[in-house]
């Protein structure tokens, strides 16, 4: 080939290479534009997600697999009073020093669970109790955790008030009961030889009832101390064999009474643990008392102490009545008792096993029960051996060190475009560029595929967050239980789109699952059904506390087909989750037959989260109902107290006055017959008058409403005036409150001062309603410069103040005397202004400042 032909061929190849380069350049531009569009879509999605993220009312935290904070919403930042920029990248344990949260994160990571919930306690910046729900988030190689926080502080405060009431009541009962039992013992000894058989039986009955009551009060005291954190724990080395012998010895009389055979299976060597001797002795006594109480006459009890690795296990086995399987999960709950016919024979409050469980857990052990109905029960607990001191799991739970994991969740992408630096007019360089470009294109295509998968996942998460936010907002807007239940199922159907569904709650009395709300065409047909624990998919979930996802219900033996047959409905697939609040299962939510596709793990996670919100909302609604019922009971109780005080007034001071009248008549006669007797009788009359006056003032002072103690003076006056207004149709009652601050909230004082002011207003208003014939009565309270001015004014007929002051009998009551005494009791001064036809004004000025 000539040189000219070679040049022509080279020119042709160069032109071809140029065309190929231009085509690759165009492909590269299309790749760039496509990636730019996807990036803009990701940014839009990110803004949507951020808007939902920022608007959630509950705190929300995103944590990486290395337990470092990746993002937090404003609600969470408000909880800890820190800016989001100062906490991103920090370990969770450094920002939120709550060991419970560390434990929950480790539990979720170690057990690979999709959702974990638990309570955590904060001390800073304010003491709070939060419910933390941790959900796993995975998108390709990106993994982490979403933590949702709900504030349960108010609910916990109600629980604490309940425990405080039990503590106060039990301590107040203990002292008088001890006195009663002491005197009964003395009487029993003194009258031992003087009582016949029937009377001795009555005395024994009194002693037995007193001992039972003492035991109940002791249980209440122990429970109050454990609940209130007042347990006095002594750390001593104890031989379990010794306290087992001691517990059995203390109960020998009752064991012989029922002719029960006791078998001891103890190791020959010491079984030493560390802990509080009295507390552990109480655990064994509670278990042995149950074994005696519920055993058959002539039955057997076996007490076993055995080594189990680093622990000692104690078993108390009996041959008694046994416990139904449905009752076992709840026997350690506070105040829980097995069926009435089994427990009423032995009495008690159902606190013994709860106290035993608390004591065992304080010593680092566990307690459980096994039983077969009609064959007996075995109660077992473990305690760490003495040499271990502290259980390994407890020491590990206190460690906050977290292993460093790979922080980056996304590979660094290669350069988005590689511009042609030079178009060297050689075939070899153009071909090499083409190979590189093809490699970049293949890499980008794989990255785009992963990004599309991430986008679909993020869109799903955004929808779920929007649903949870909507549910949280909707459920917090009402405390009506029926509305709450309806809202829950409406939201469930809106997000999961199913053929049918239902919400079932556990009946506390029967332990059955009761249909409350149902979805679908056959909804009315399921409401009459009541499911036992363990019956059907719903019963299984309610019993185990674990969610279930069934893809083929007709082949699953656990499915309760009677509902399908009755309602003419075919259940193909089921998603069922428990509703749990504070470790207690209160019901389940189940949905059937998804309209589009099959149920997924994502659906299960979402329904679990909805169930968490639903359980809180249902519990709040129930608490609200209980508060309303309690308010009505308080009103009735207040009326009963007033009636009782009225009876006491009649039976006390009235009788004293009658006695005074009799002595006056005697004095009148003695003046004529024997004047020397008059002085002694007058002294007796003075003493009787003073006693009557003191009793009347005391009883009248007790007639204060309960709202005065719980809410204060102004709400108490509002309640009093509202009730009196209902009784009086011709007079209008007004209340005006003014302070230096410009509001209507008086400074709170002690109960003595507020009760005195309430009594003054009550007396003055009642007098005006009785005598003034007024169209209007004004009650005015003004707080200024450390003084409270109390004025009761009417536009009635008025009266001559001088005449009334000289003769109180003219108005038929001692009202002004009572007002004057109460004003002086709190350092106040009374002023009375009135004139015929001009109305009356009663004004009292009282020193008023913050309560000591």
Distinctive features:
852 residues, alpha+beta, five-stranded antiparallel β-sheet, 52% helix, extended
Please characterize this protein's 3D structure:
The protein has 852 residues and is α+β, with helices and mostly antiparallel strands. 52% of the residues lie in helices and 19% in strands. It contains 26 helices and 23 strands. The strands form 5 sheets. Strands 15-14-13-18-17-16 form a 6-stranded antiparallel beta sheet, with helices on both faces. A hairpin with a 6-residue loop joins strand 13 and strand 14. The longest helix is centred in the first third of the chain and has 53 residues, at 3-55. The radius of gyration is 40 Å and the shape is extended. The model is unreliable at 340-345, 388-430 and 809-813 (pLDDT under 50).
Helix content: 40-55%
Termini Cα gap: 118 Å
- Strands of the widest sheet, in order across it, are 15-14-13-18-17-16
Structural class: alpha+beta
Rg is 40 Å
Proportion in β-strands = 15-25%
| Overall form | extended
Q: How many helices?
A: 26
Extract low-pLDDT stretches: 340-345, 388-430, 809-813
Query: What is the number of E strands?
Result: 23
Largest sheet: 6 strands, antiparallel
Mean pLDDT: 77
What's the short version?
This protein has 852 residues and is an alpha+beta fold. The protein contains 26 helices and 23 strands.
């Amino acid at each position: 080939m000539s040189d000219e032909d070679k040049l022509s061929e080279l020119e042709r190849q160069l032109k071809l290479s140029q065309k190929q380069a231009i085509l690759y350049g165009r492909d590269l531009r299309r790749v760039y534009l496509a990636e730019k569009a996807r990036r803009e879509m990701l940014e839009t999605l990110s803004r949507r997600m951020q808007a939902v993220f920022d608007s959630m009312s509950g705190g929300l935290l995103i944590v990486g697999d290395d337990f470092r904070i990746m993002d937090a919403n404003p609600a969470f930042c408000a909880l800890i009073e820190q800016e989001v920029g100062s906490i991103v990248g920090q370990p969770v344990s450094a920002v939120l020093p709550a060991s419970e949260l560390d434990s929950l994160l480790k539990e979720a990571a170690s057990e690979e669970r999709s959702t974990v919930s638990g309570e955590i306690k904060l001390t800073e910046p304010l003491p709070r109790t939060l419910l933390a729900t941790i959900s796993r988030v995975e998108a390709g190689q990106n993994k982490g955790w979403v933590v949702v926080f709900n504030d349960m502080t108010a609910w916990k405060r109600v629980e604490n008030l309940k425990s405080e009431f039990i503590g106060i009541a039990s301590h107040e009962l203990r002292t008088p009961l001890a006195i009663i039992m002491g005197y009964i013992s003395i009487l029993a000894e003194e009258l031992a030889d003087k009582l016949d058989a029937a009377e001795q039986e009555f005395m024994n009955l009194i002693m037995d009832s007193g001992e039972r009551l003492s035991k109940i009060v002791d249980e209440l005291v122990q429970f109050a101390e454990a609940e209130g954190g007042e347990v006095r724990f002594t750390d001593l080395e104890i031989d379990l064999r010794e306290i087992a012998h001691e517990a059995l010895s203390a109960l020998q009389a009752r064991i012989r009474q029922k002719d029960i055979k006791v078998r001891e299976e103890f190791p020959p060597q010491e079984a030493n643990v560390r802990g509080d001797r009295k507390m552990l002795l109480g655990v064994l006594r509670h278990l042995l008392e149950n074994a005696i109480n519920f055993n058959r006459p002539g039955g057997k009890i076996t007490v076993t102490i055995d080594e189990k690795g680093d622990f000692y296990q104690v078993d108390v086995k009996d041959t008694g009545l046994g416990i139904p399987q449905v009752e076992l999960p709840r026997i350690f709950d506070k105040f829980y008792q097995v069926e009435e016919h089994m427990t009423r024979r032995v009495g008690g409050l159902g606190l013994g096993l709860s106290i035993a469980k608390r004591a065992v857990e304080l010593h680092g052990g566990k307690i459980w029960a096994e039983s077969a109905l009609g064959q007996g029960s075995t109660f077992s607990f473990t305690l760490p051996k003495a040499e271990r001191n502290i259980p390994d799991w407890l020491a590990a739970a206190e460690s906050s060190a977290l292993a460093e994991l790979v922080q980056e969740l996304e590979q660094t992408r290669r350069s988005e475009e590689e511009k042609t630096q030079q178009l060297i007019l050689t075939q070899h360089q153009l071909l090499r560029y083409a190979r590189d470009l093809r490699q970049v294109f293949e890499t980008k295509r794989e990255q785009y595929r992963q990004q599309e998968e991430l986008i679909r996942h993020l869109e799903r998460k955004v929808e779920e967050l929007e649903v949870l936010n909507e549910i949280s907002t909707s459920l917090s807007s009402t405390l009506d239980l029926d509305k709450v239940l309806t809202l829950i199922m409406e939201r469930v159907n809106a997000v999961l789109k199913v053929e049918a569904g239902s919400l079932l709650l556990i009946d506390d009395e029967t332990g059955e699952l009761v249909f409350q709300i149902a979805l679908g065409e056959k909804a009315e047909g399921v409401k009459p059904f009541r499911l036992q624990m363990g019956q059907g998919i719903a019963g299984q979930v309610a019993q185990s506390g674990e969610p279930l996802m069934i893809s083929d219900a007709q082949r699953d033996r656990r499915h309760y087909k009677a509902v399908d047959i009755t309602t003419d409905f075919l259940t193909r697939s089921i998603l069922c989750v428990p509703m749990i609040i504070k470790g207690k299962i209160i019901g389940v939510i189940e949905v059937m037959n998804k309209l589009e596709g099959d149920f997924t793990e994502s659906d299960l996670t979402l329904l679990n989260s909805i169930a968490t919100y639903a359980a809180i909302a249902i519990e709040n609604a129930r608490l609200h109902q209980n508060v309303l019922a309690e308010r009505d009971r308080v009103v009735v109780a207040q009326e009963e107290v007033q009636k009782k005080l009225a009876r006491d007034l009649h039976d006390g001071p009235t009788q004293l006055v009658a006695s005074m009248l009799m002595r006056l008549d005697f004095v009148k006669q003695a003046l004529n017959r024997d004047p020397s007797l008059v002085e002694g009788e007058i002294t007796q009359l003075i003493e009787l008058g003073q006693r009557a006056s003191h009793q009347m003032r005391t009883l009248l002072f007790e007639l204060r409403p309960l709202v005065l103690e719980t809410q204060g003076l102004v709400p108490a006056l509002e309640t009093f005036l509202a009730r009196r207004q209902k009784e009086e149709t011709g007079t209008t009652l007004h209340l005006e409150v003014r302070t230096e601050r410009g509001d209507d909230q008086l400074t709170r004082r002690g109960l003595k001062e507020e009760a005195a002011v309430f009594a003054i207003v009550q007396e003055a208003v009642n007098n005006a309603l009785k005598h003034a014939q007024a169209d209007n009565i004004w009650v005015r309270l003004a707080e200024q410069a450390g003084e409270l001015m109390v004025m009761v004014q009417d536009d009635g007929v008025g009266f001559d103040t001088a005449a009334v002051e000289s003769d109180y009998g003219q108005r038929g009551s001692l009202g002004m005397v009572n007002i004057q005494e109460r004003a002086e009791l709190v350092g106040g001064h009374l002023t009375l202004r009135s004139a015929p036809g001009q109305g009356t004004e009663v004004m009292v000025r009282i020193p008023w400042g913050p309560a000591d």
